[in-house]
Amino acid sequence: MLNKLKVEEMKKEFRSCDIDQNGFITASELRYVLTKDGGDYTDEDVCKAIETYDVDGDGRISYDEYVKMCDSIEKQAAGVDKLVTSVTLPEEKMQEMKATFMLFDVGNNGFITAADFQLSAKNYGEKLTEEEAYNLLRNLDADGDGRVSFDEFVKRFMAM
């Protein structure tokens, strides 16, 4: 489920791709958006993307299809990130990261929320305001679902 901030971001992105503002992204609009900043996409790449994500077969991408396309791309990227993380981190470092993650995962549910950050800080005698906890969460929450998974946690700290 997308949070409100993510939904607004997706709508804004969709509108920027929908150049003629008719509520759909055509192949030519998609090609323009993908190549305007130097992206190297062929007509074949663009047509394949349209074919893949154009569920109703009308030759263009609606907002709902766009959301599904972005979700699919994010999931594929997350799978690649997970593979890269498992290949690049030595076992000892991975165990260290898991132990650190578990310190913050107060609910022991495999995710860290803003409330978890606040409670963890309190457990260590520190105070973290709601705003500080939310900002910390926002910096780590790559997919915008309002919580930090172990993969997001590792990815962020590997980038440091």
TrEMBL record:
GO terms for molecular function: calcium ion binding. Keywords: Calcium, Repeat. It comes from the Eukaryota. Residues 5-40, 41-76, 92-127, 128-160 form the EF-hand domain. Pfam families: EF-hand_7. The keyword Flavoprotein does not apply. Gene3D superfamilies: EF-hand. SUPFAM superfamilies: EF-hand. This is EF-hand domain-containing protein. It comes from Brassica cretica.
